[in-house]
Amino acid sequence: MVAAVDAVAEKVVAQLREECATPATRLDGVATAMEEEMRAGLHQEAGSKIKMIISYVDNLPNGSEEGLFYALDLGGTNFRVLRVQLAGKDKRVVKRESREVSIPPHLMSGSSAELFGFIASALAKFVADEGDNKVLDGKQRELGFTFSFPVRQSSIASGTLIKWTKAFAIDDAVGKDVVAELQTAMEKQGIDMRVSALINDTVGTLATGSYNDEDVVIGVILGTGSNAAYLEKADAIPKLEGELPKSGNMVINTEWGNFSSSCLPITEYDQALDKESLNPREQIFEKLISGMYLGDIVRRVLLKIASRSLIFGHIKRTNLKTRFILRTPDISAMHHDETPDLRIVAEKLAETLKIKDTSLETRKMVVDICDIVTSRSARLAAAGIVGIIRKIGRGTPGDKRRTVIAIDGGLFEHYTKFRQCLESTLVELLGEEASELVAVKLTKDGSGVGAALIAAAHSQYLN
Predict the structure, then answer these.
(1) Active site residue 363
(2) Which domain holds residue 175?
């Protein structure tokens, strides 16, 4: 049996607790800083750490949409095509079909024409399965395109690729309009289809939420990564050029992952993680709150303890030096362990980190570390949401409007203690009275169904 928790380990945990502390006053500062960055980003391009991208989505779906719409969701090594039938006033999706297709590795570094040609051929096969559909009634098919890579949009249905991320490296596509590339590829396949909207998954989450509940005004992704989109008044966007949309509204994709501020509680572990990341000094907020990083922050704390204490045995016999070996589902499982002897914690430590024979005190300490890191994450995410709520003049005593936040992502969906902490922090920051009219709702598949809904809300056949 390895030693129980010693003074050295206790000191490391105490210091972590102090440095990760998020009292309401600090969170209030984070919300204020978020709101200031939002205003600066709306004022001018490159005016802020967060981009505040104009999505050109000026109408959110409201349940009156009807007809058959397609969606294409491209964001990684697979893409999905969807067909969604909407029943208008019944406010429901009558039917949805989808197909997932893997992209052959050679196409991820080939030419733009090859990639979009492959996508269009898969789409053509999917369209061919439509059957005898009376819903279209001679109308041109319409498609919403979720493209989860950085683009510069100039309208609802055009956007030039700024750069590829993930495993893609197709040089001749950079600087080109991805909608035009897709449209050309579809025409070559003989598909009569118009791309009605180019969106990202956060905007899609907002749209899906709005379709199911008209009071949804913010969409948030809390999964592997994190981002937020919200409905802004068009006249509050100084950088928006040209005529204001008839609706008077505009969805803004904040790209809040890149937010950073002196208010944020940043530890030595966060600094080391950032320094060793693929994008140092970028996406600081995302690195503090999203699912990709929480497990590795916990691992780094355990590694520091192991380098100064023997409670985990000899460091060389463990996997503690392997980056990202501890994932957020692992820390969630340990954090939620309710067995009397913390058996799940023992199993996770043994299986994943090769740390065996831990004492019950040591396992309790590990749960404690998971709690400190996750609580900070959830509380900061809540502060970011409050910053957006304040920016749109909601959530104040006396404001009688209901404000709903649609949230998607595995961190929010599956990590119960994260979700509970986020919800209780919103109440703490907004106050009892105002928070009664603020709700969060799990909203799934914004990148798929959401894209089809936005295509419907921006259909060429609407009056």
Answers:
(1) no
(2) 56-199
